[in-house]
Amino acid sequence: MKENNNQEIDDDVMVTIELDGEDLDCEILTIFDIDNQDYIVLMPVDENGEPLDDTLVYIYRYFENDGEYSIDNIQSDEEYNRVNKRFNELLEEAK
User: What's the pTM value of the predicted model, to 2 decimals?
Assistant: First the structure.
């Protein structure tokens, strides 16, 4: 699923996450790593695959083990700031 160059992945890959007790469909925007930890960026979409808000994304820690995938919350503000900075750099590189 992940490309070696830490760039965009297939635009049509969707996942459903649970947020505040409700299921939320999301498009996977990218997966990238920082210091051997993978991160996934998700954009919430409606039933037609259209962004609910094109400025809203969720960023999580991402784990892949023996074909199983899972996500977890980022653990600190410092970690989040590093990850958010790298995601913004990837956005600029994609322009």
Answer: 0.82
Give the other-Cβ count within 10 Å of 65's Cβ.
7
For residue 74, how far is the Cα from the chain centroid? 12
Q: Are 80 and 89 in contact, with CB atoms under 8 Å apart?
A: no
Q: Which of 36, 33, 30, 28 is nearest to 7 (CA)?
A: 30
- Cα distance between the two ends of the chain: 22
Amino acid identity at 8:
E
Give the pLDDT confidence of 10-63 residue by residue, as tens digits: 456 889 999 899 999 999 999 999 999 999 999 999 999 899 998 899 999 999
Q: Letter for the amino acid at 35?
A: D
Judging by beta carbons within 10 Å of its beta carbon (0-12, 13-18, 19+), is residue 25 exposed, middle or buried?
Answer: middle
